[in-house]
UniProtKB/TrEMBL annotation:
Its cofactor is heme. Coiled coil: none annotated. It comes from Eucalyptus grandis. This is Cytochrome P450. The chain crosses the membrane at residues 6-31. Belongs to the cytochrome P450 family. It comes from the Eukaryota.
Length: 549
C-alpha cells in the first residue's frame, strides 16, 4: 500500500516537473514574444509576425537564398542592399526603418536612423547596450579576447592593446607592408603573358597578402611561428564557413562528427603552438619587463603609458605588448594572450582583404577614377618608388576612393547590441534582453542621408572629409563607432592605401569578361563568384623625382 502511494507521489512529481517545464517553454516560446510584440506595437513599432519557435527565420533565409541565387540587375549596379540584406529591404518597405524581426524567439529591433545609432553607441545611454553573444562557430574563431569580452576585462585589454595601433607605431610598419605587396606583384609579373597582361582572381591573392601583413603585425620577430599558427586558424575558418552555410542545429558543435573532430584537433594545436611561442618569448625576454619589442623601461605602474613610449621608438608587435602587460598585471594570463591572437587574425584578415578586393573591383569598373588616383600616386610618389609614410598622407584621391568603397561595400554589413537592462532610446522603451540590429549597409545606401546618388560610385562626396560627406555626420560607420569601434582601422587603412598605391603605380586593370557582380554576405560582404581582374603592366611613366610635389 505504502509502495503504491510512493509510486503515485513520484508520478505526480514527474507530472508537475513536466508541466512546469512545458509552461516555461510556452512562456519563452509563446507568451513572451507576444508580450514583446504588444509592447512595441503600442509604441508604433511593428514587424513581421512572430512564428512559434522559428520566429521569422524561415522567411528571412528564403529571401536571402532567393536574392543570392539571382544576378544583379542592372548587372554592375551598386544598389546592392536588396541582394545583400534582402530581408531588411523587404520589411523596411512595409514597416518603416525601425522594425522588429524575430531570430527564433530572440527579438531584434532594426535601427538605421543615425541619431538613434549615435545614442546607442556614444551617448551616456550606451552603457545600457552591450555586445551580444556571437554565434557559437564565430565565437570559436574570434576567441575570448577584445572582440567578445565585456566590462572591466574588456576595458583593461583595450587599454593594453591600443598603443600597438597608434599611427606613429603603424607608420613604422610601412616598409614591412610594402615588401609583402611588392613580393605579391613580383609573382604577378612572373605570370604575365608576353604582352604584359595577366588575369588574377584578386580576392584570393589579397587574402594571402593581408594574412601575411597581419602575421607580421601580430608576431613581428616570431613571424615564421606565427605564420604556421595562422595557417591552422585559416583551416579552421574554412571548416566553420562550411557549417555556417548549413542550417543551424543547436548543440551540433558538441557532436563528434568528422568535421568537429578535425576542428577540435586544430583548436588544440593552435593553443599548444601559441602557448609554446609565448613561453619562448617570455624566456627570451628574461626577468625584465621588456619583451624585446621596445627599448624603453616600464615602471610597472602606468602600463599603457610605458607601452606607448616604446611604440614611438620601435614597432611593437601585439604579442610583445601582451607579454609585457602580462608581467605588469595579473589580469592578463597566457590564455588571454592566446585568445587575443586568435581574435586579431579573425578580425583583421578577411575584413581588410574584402575592403581591398572591393576597392580594386570599383577602380576596374570606374576607369576615370583609376586614372585620377594613378596620376596622383605618380605625382606624389613617382613611378617605381614605394610610397613613404609621409607620401601616403598626401594621397587624397585614393583616400576618397577607399572611403567610397567602404561606404558602398562595407565588409561588416551589420552590428548587433543587446539591452542589458530596460532602457529608453529617444522616447522608445526598450525591454532588457532586446537585441538591436544596426544594418551598416542600409545606413550607407540611404538616399535620405546620402542624396539621390546614394547608389552611385562618387568618391568626390568625401572631398571635404568624412563628417561632411553626408547630411548626417555620423552616417559613415564602416568601423563601428564609440568606445568599441574597430581597434585595427588605422592598420587596415594603411595597408589598403599602400597596397592600392603600389598596384596602380605599376598596372592598369579592368574587370575580366568572366567577372559576375554578385555581392553577398557570409559573415562579411564578399564577391560570390570571386573577383577576376585583368592587370596590364604600365610602360614606365617618365616622372622624374624632382618634377614631383
Ligand atoms: C577594413 C577592415 C576592417 C573593418 C571594416 C572592420 C570593422 C570593424 C567593426 C565594424 C567593428 C565594431 C564591431 C562592433 O562594434 O560590433 C570592429 C571591431 C574590431 N576590430 Fe575591426 N575591422 C577591420 C579591420 C580590423 C583589423 C585589421 C583588426 C586587427 C588587426 C581589427 C580588429 C578589431 C577588433 C579587435 C575589434 C573589437 C574592438 C573592441 O570591441 O574593443 N579590425 N571592426
Amino acid at each position: 500500500m505504502e509502495d503504491e502511494a510512493l509510486a503515485w507521489l513520484k508520478l505526480a512529481l514527474i507530472c508537475a516537473a513536466v508541466a512546469a517545464a512545458a509552461l516555461r517553454i510556452a512562456a519563452v516560446l509563446w507568451w513572451r514574444p507576444r508580450r514583446i510584440e504588444d509592447h512595441f506595437s503600442r509604441q508604433g513599432i511593428r514587424g513581421p509576425p512572430y512564428r512559434f519557435f522559428i520566429g521569422n527565420v524561415k522567411e528571412l533565409v528564403g529571401m536571402m537564398m532567393k536574392a543570392s541565387s539571382q544576378p544583379m540587375a542592372p548587372p554592375f549596379s551598386h544598389n546592392i542592399l536588396p541582394r545583400v540584406l534582402s530581408f531588411y529591404h523587404h520589411w523596411k518597405k512595409i514597416y518603416g526603418s525601425t522594425f522588429l524581426v524575430w531570430f527564433g524567439p530572440t527579438v531584434r529591433l532594426t535601427v538605421s536612423d543615425p541619431e538613434l545609432i549615435r545614442e546607442i553607441f556614444t551617448s551616456k545611454q550606451s552603457e545600457f547596450y552591450e555586445k551580444s553573444e556571437s554565434h557559437p562557430l564565430v565565437k570559436q574563431l574570434e576567441g575570448d579576447g577584445l572582440l567578445s569580452l565585456r566590462g572591466e576585462k574588456w576595458a583593461h585589454h583595450r587599454k593594453i592593446i591600443v598603443p600597438t595601433f597608434y599611427m606613429e607605431n603603424l607608420k613604422l610598419l610601412v616598409p614591412v607592408v610594402a615588401s609583402s605587396v611588392t613580393s605579391m606583384l613580383e609573382k604577378w609579373e612572373v605570370l604575365m603573358s608576353k604582352s604584359g597582361e595577366v588575369e588574377i582572381e584578386v580576392s584570393e591573392w589579397l587574402q594571402n597578402l593581408t594574412e601575411d601583413i597581419i602575421t607580421r603585425t601580430a608576431f613581428g620577430i616570431s613571424y615564421e611561428d606565427g605564420k604556421a599558427i595562422f595557417r591552422l586558424q585559416a583551416r579552421q575558418m574554412v571548416l566553420a564557413a562550411d557549417v555556417f552555410q548549413k542550417v543551424f542545429i543547436p548543440g551540433y558543435r558538441f557532436l563528434p562528427t568528422k568535421r568537429n573532430i578535425v576542428s577540435w584537433k586544430l583548436d588544440r594545436e593552435i593553443k599548444k603552438s601559441l602557448v609554446k611561442l609565448i613561453d619562448r618569448r617570455k624566456e627570451e625576454s628574461g626577468g625584465s619587463s621588456d619583451d624585446g619589442g621596445g627599448d624603453g623601461g616600464g615602471d610597472g605602474g602606468n602600463d599603457a603609458a610605458a607601452l606607448e613610449g616604446r611604440s614611438r621608438s620601435r614597432p611593437n608587435d601585439l604579442l610583445g605588448l601582451m607579454i609585457q602587460a602580462s608581467k605588469l598585471s595579473d589580469a592578463v594570463s597566457v590564455n588571454d594572450i592566446v585568445e587575443e591572437c586568435k581574435g586579431f587574425f579573425f578580425a583583421g584578415k578577411h575584413s581588410t582583404s574584402n575592403m581591398l578586393t572591393w576597392t580594386t573591383v570599383l577602380l576596374a569598373m570606374h576607369p576615370q577614377w583609376q586614372v585620377r588616383a594613378r596620376d596622383e600616386v605618380l605625382r606624389v610618389c613617382g613611378s617605381r618608388d614605394v610610397p613613404t609614410k609621409d607620401e601616403l598622407v598626401k594621397l587624397k584621391t585614393l583616400t576618397m576612393v577607399v572611403n567610397e568603397s567602404l561606404r558602398l561595400y562595407p565588409p561588416v554589413v551589420a552590428m548587433i547590441r543587446r539591452a542589458r537592462a530596460d532602457a529608453e532610446l529617444n522616447g522608445y522603451q526598450i525591454p532588457r534582453g532586446t537585441e538591436i540590429l544596426i544594418p551598416i549597409l542600409a545606413l550607407h545606401h540611404d538616399q535620405a542621408i546620402w542624396g539621390s546618388d546614394a547608389n552611385e560610385f562618387n568618391p568626390g562626396r568625401f572631398a571635404d572629409g568624412v563628417a561632411r560627406a553626408a547630411k548626417h555626420p555620423g552616417a559613415f560607420i564602416p568601423f563601428g563607432l564609440g568606445p568599441r569601434n574597430c581597434i585595427g582601422q588605422n592598420l587596415a587603412l594603411l595597408q589598403a592605401k599602400l597596397a592600392l598605391a603600389i598596384i596602380i603605380q605599376r598596372f592598369s586593370f579592368v574587370l575580366a569578361p568572366s567577372y559576375r557582380h554578385a555581392p553577398t554576405v557570409l559573415m562579411l560582404l564578399y564577391p560570390q563568384h570571386g573577383a577576376p581582374i585583368i592587370f596590364k603592366r604600365l610602360a614606365d611613366p617618365p616622372a622624374p623625382r624632382d618634377q614631383r610635389l
